[in-house]
Write a structure and sequence with these properties.
This protein has eleven helices and 14 strands. The chain is of the alpha/beta class and 310 residues long. The chain has two domains: 221 residues, Rossmann fold; 62 residues, 2-Layer Sandwich (Alpha-Beta Plaits), CATH 3.30.70. The protein is elongated, with a radius of gyration of 24 Å.
């Protein structure tokens, strides 16, 4: 990964309303995104992801704080910044009566390099299996999003800002998109990816920022955020779960979320296994399965303030 920060955000806040009716959409955000990385910006709807992106693009103005892209102020130098970035909005709005080709040619002419950009757009459309001869009104929602991705990427920008880009895309196209993002990073370019699709973030992102109610709760590498202290443990007995075992497990400080069904008991466990092995020794254990938590479970644990994942 190349060194240097592409995005620098300091104390960025956005509030709506006034007085007692004031609502904070974003609160004191401090964040740095490095050159040559894919940064995942995680959070459910309403967490503040789109607000952050709109502030970065100078589509709305902050209540306080500032942000820079390529070392330039996002407000004072927004025109120059926009020349060097590609943007995919969560709510995609295209000219319904125009074909994909017409829109591509128009946007390319605005950017001033029709031949090279249009050629690259054709290559991207082919990879995404998009027919650009159709009018937008005749495209499915998934194909409209493909067209949006082509428009965002066709001028090979230094920075891609993508707001929920893969919603509505089928799994094969999502995999193609992941490959394209990997290739983008390999060229030393940067991607800021807003998403709530956790498997996608886990597949392609280098680091993850977790946003909740307008506040940044954590920024970690994907490797670190998935290296948590708890595991799910399934124990299968030859006969029924021994009498009193569930209560015994529930009383152990390192074990939570115990459920028993027939000859199987499942639990969430932190720390050493020896106390568990001693506790289940009264029964004949046929198998013991250890399962790492999914990124979704880690994500929910961060949201609930569970310190076992820190």
């Amino acid at each position: 990964m190349a060194s240097g920060s592409i995005i620098e955000i300091k104390g960025l806040s956005k509030t709506y309303g006034s007085g007692s009716k004031q609502t904070a959409a974003l609160s004191n955000l401090n964040l740095s995104v490095n050159q040559g990385e894919i940064f995942g910006y995680l959070g459910p709807n309403g967490a503040g992801k789109t607000t952050t992106i709109r502030l970065l693009l100078d589509l709305i103005r902050p209540s306080q704080g500032d942000a820079k892209i390529f070392g330039m102020d996002v407000r004072a130098e927004s025109v120059e910044i926009h020349r060097r970035i590609g943007f995919f909005p969560a709510e995609l709005s295209l000219w319904e009566g125009r074909t994909g080709d017409q829109i591509i040619h128009y946007v390319a002419s605005v950017r001033g390099d029709t031949r090279g950009i249009v050629k690259h757009a054709g290559e991207l459309a082919e990879r995404l299996d998009l027919d650009t001869t159709k009018r937008v009104r005749d495209l499915s929602s998934g194909n409209k999003r493909k067209l949006g991705l082509v428009i965002a990427m066709m001028h090979s920008p230094e920075l891609l800002i993508l707001d929920e880009p893969t919603g509505g895309l089928d799994p094969l196209v999502q995999q193609t998109f992941h490959t394209m993002m990997d290739e983008y990073r390999d060229k030393g370019k940067t991607v800021f990816l807003s998403s709530h699709i956790l498997s996608e973030v886990q597949a392609i992102c280098d680091r993850v920022g977790i946003l909740r109610d307008g506040e940044l709760k954590a920024v970690e590498s994907v490797e670190k955020i998935t290296n948590v202290e708890f595991n799910w443990v399934d124990v299968n007995f030859r006969d029924a779960v021994p009498a009193g075992l569930q209560q015994k497990l529930e009383n152990m400080p390192t074990i939570t979320d115990v459920s028993a069904n027939g000859a199987r008991v499942r639990m969430r466990m932190i720390g050493d296994f020896d106390p568990l092995l001693r506790a289940i020794s009264d029964g004949y254990v046929e198998s013991l399965h250890i399962e790492e938590p999914t990124l979704e479970e880690i994500f929910l644990a961060y949201y609930s303030g569970d310190k076992e994942t820190s």
